[in-house]
Automatic annotation (TrEMBL):
It comes from Helicobacter equorum. This is ABC transporter permease. The lineage of its organism: Bacteria, Pseudomonadati, Campylobacterota, Epsilonproteobacteria, Campylobacterales. PANTHER family: INNER MEMBRANE TRANSPORT PERMEASE YHHJ, MEMBRANE COMPONENT OF ABC TRANSPORTER YHHJ-RELATED. One of its GO terms (cellular component) is plasma membrane. Keywords: Cell membrane, Membrane, Transmembrane, Transmembrane helix. It is a multi-pass membrane protein. It is found in: Cell membrane. The chain crosses the membrane at residues 15-36, 182-203, 215-235, 247-272, 278-297, 335-357. One of its GO terms (molecular function) is ABC-type transporter activity. The keyword Transmembrane applies. Its main location: membrane. Residues 18-352 form the ABC-2 type transporter transmembrane domain.
Length: 362
């Protein structure tokens, strides 16, 4: 109890540490969850230019609004009228129904629908592209069924002629294509890594006068964020994101990840001897974690320099372990191999400790 009271008094004198240990993990975690809790983009506003004004174009309008991904927010008289709204993201896309749309359908001369979308928003653009392809497929199927029904007067036969091949698409490891599952499982560990590094920098503001003092700060900081990491894993599990492998191996992986990043901070501070410089270098080191962790951009698609940077980040190995255990239920041997690769980062603490020792001896 005495040690706990001493630790609490220490934190009350270090407001930044108090924030990093007890406030920011909750606030940032909630903020990330709130952003991506919708899981998939829905009801995205788009514009419509109907130059045909027929029953066929009205059917297009109805089918678009029936899609869960998009809805027609506003109709425009021309593409030029919609240009400013598309540029300012009041609408994310514009569907243009050309003149003689219904006539071309009746004549079978190849009616066309045009979709213009803002490709700056990558996720939104992909969602709209996919939804529009489904809408066009639905319209084609309805038209084919109607034509076949006139000839055959049998609904089942008309359906089979219109769609002779049915696709069976089975998504694996993220059955609902949940974007929150894709991002939260990456963002939360990256957040823990950065917060742990920030806290370690704050603990090193006062130069440790002995190895024991340095070791206590190193282990203490790691244990606090391991606890937050366990909370993170439990949250992900409660959100329904499966862990098919070992929960214990993931906890061990978290421990090695945090020991590694804290060791890097100790090494940099011992080498540079300046908190401001250390903050700058650590920021440059950890900032690209999201891009190079191997989730948003697979490692087997990276060029040499991107792969090298990825291997220099402990978070990339942890994410490999997480995917192996949570998604695939990987073997113990495979997990131990990844943990072995992560353990190389522990060398940085040893090097940092030696540099501190040599500086004290001098």
């Amino acid at each position: 109890m005495k040690k706990i009271r001493q630790f609490w008094k220490f934190l009350t004198r270090r407001f930044v540490l108090f924030l990093v240990y007890f406030v920011l993990p909750i606030v940032l975690g909630w903020f990330m969850y709130a952003i991506f809790s919708a899981s998939l983009p829905r009801d995205l506003p788009i514009g419509l230019v109907d130059l045909d004004r027929t029953t066929a174009s009205a059917d297009v309008h109805f089918t678009i609004n029936a899609s869960p991904t998009m809805y027609v927010k506003q109709e425009y008289g021309s593409i030029l009228e919609a240009k400013s709204d598309l540029a300012t993201a009041k609408i994310y896309a514009l569907v243009v129904i050309p003149h003689d749309f219904q006539k071309d359908i009746m004549l079978g001369s190849g009616a066309k629908l045009a979709l213009y979308y803002n490709a700056q928003f990558v996720l939104v653009g992909k969602s709209l592209n996919s939804a529009f392809a489904q809408i066009v497929g639905t319209l084609n199927a309805k038209q084919s069924v109607a034509q076949n029904l006139i000839k055959d007067q049998d609904l089942q036969l008309a359906l089979s002629k219109a769609m002779p091949i049915f696709s069976q698409i089975i998504p694996l490891y993220n059955a609902s294509s949940n974007y929150a599952q894709f991002l939260l499982t990456l963002l939360l560990p990256c957040m823990l890594q950065i917060l742990s590094a920030v806290a370690m920098i704050q603990l090193l503001r006062g130069t440790p006068h002995s190895f024991k003092s340095l070791f206590v700060r190193y282990i203490g900081n790691t244990m606090i964020f391991v606890w937050w990491g366990i909370c993170m894993l439990l949250l992900l599990k409660n959100l329904g994101y499966e862990v098919r492998g070992s929960f214990g191996l993931l906890v061990i992986g978290l421990g090695v990840l945090l020991l590694g990043i804290n060791g890097v901070v100790v090494f940099l501070q011992s080498l540079l001897g300046d908190i401001k410089k250390t903050i700058g270098v650590v920021a440059v080191y950890t900032a690209p974690s999201l891009a190079f962790a191997g989730v948003t951009y697979p490692q087997n698609s990276m060029n040499f320099f991107a792969l090298l940077w990825s291997k220099c980040l402990p978070i990339s190995s942890f994410m490999e372990l997480y995917i192996q255990q949570a998604n695939y239920g990987g073997s113990l041997g495979g997990a131990l191999q990844i943990l072995g690769e992560m353990s190389y980062f522990l060398i940085f603490f040893v090097l940092g400790s030696l540099i501190y020792y040599k500086k004290r001896a001098a």
